[in-house]
Amino acid sequence: MTAGGNGASAGSEKHLIAIRDLWKTYRMGAEEVHALRGVDLAIDRNEYVAIIGPSGSGKSTLMNILGCLDTPTKGEYWLAGRRVSDLDDDELAFIRNREIGFVFQTFHLLARASALRNVELPLVYRGTPAAERRAAALRALEEVELTTRAGHKPNELSGGQRQRVAIARALVTKPSILLADEPTGNLDSTTSGEIMDLFDRLHREGNTVVLVTHERDIALRARRIVAIHDGRISADVPADRAAEVLAGPLEGQRPPEAP
Ligand code: ADP
Ligand code: MG
Q1: How far is the CA of 147 from the centre of ligand 1 (A)?
Q2: Residue 37: closest CA among 166, 224, 228, 173
């Protein structure tokens, strides 16, 4: 697809994700908060990227824009060959459903719906027929090894199991990219390890994974580490150079919550 035709964008459509000079400014009354200040980033299919940085540095703002949950104030975003920056809300919702699987720190499951129903929901929005939807949701639950809990509601599941349901929900649409904003932030360290084993496996199976984390051990699972500071990318290195970035930016962070 060749939407745009802006010379400055040449090549952006080759990447799964390409953003250029992305800005996000929040207006709080008279004050402006520049959450992102000119971010450039390209991510290709089957990459495994960890985004790290201090609290308030713009990580969630960036993830929400990448996930089409929010729009930038300025700049370009290309996703799977399409220029997202100029889509309206309906088009954004459509692209989000097709291309993005999003996993949140706090799971965001519907409390009164079973695991199976939660996983089916993105396909309900898409209008997939019931039988097909159910089969796809069961396959996704199988991928996260939760078939035996399909009928359970979130409050009948452990934190790790809830996150696995949320990951199944993200996978059920077969998205181009799996985005996870601090997916282990509400889990104890053993459960975090299990969830990360699952992300590792999904990456090995060919998925593109981008996750935000505060935790060094988790960042080290990825193949590429992007550090963000004050709304700007301060480092972008392959995992074998992780020591260069992990020494600095994570210091002064609050420690992971006790189990
Ligand atoms: P991180 O995820 O790295 O902790 P965020 O992306 O959540 O950081 O926030 C980046 C900056 O933008 C912070 O200064 C935060 O206070 C501000 N911010 C985030 N969301 C909003 C919002 N909806 N309205 C105003 N300011 C916001
Ligand atoms: Mg955040």
Answers
A1: 37
A2: 228
Residue 172 resides in a domain: yes
Q: What is the DSSP string of 123-177?
A: HHHHT--HHHHHHHHHHHHHHTT-GGGTT--GGGS-HHHHHHHHHHHHHTT--SE
Return averaged pLDDT per consecutive 10 residues of the chain, 259 residues in all. 46 88 95 97 97 96 95 94 87 91 96 98 95 98 97 98 97 96 95 96 96 92 96 95 75 50
Q: Which atom of ligand 1 is nearest to the CA of 63?
A: 6
The bound ligand whose nearest atom lies closest to the alpha carbon of 227 is 1
Pocket of ligand 1 (CB under 6 A): 26, 28, 33, 35, 53, 55-61
Q: What is the pLDDT of residue 13?
A: 76
Whether 213 is in a domain gets the answer yes
What is the Cα–Cα distance from 250 to 91, expressed in whole angstroms?
A: 37
Total structural domains in the chain? 1
Residue whose Cα lies nearest atom 10 of ligand 1: it is 58
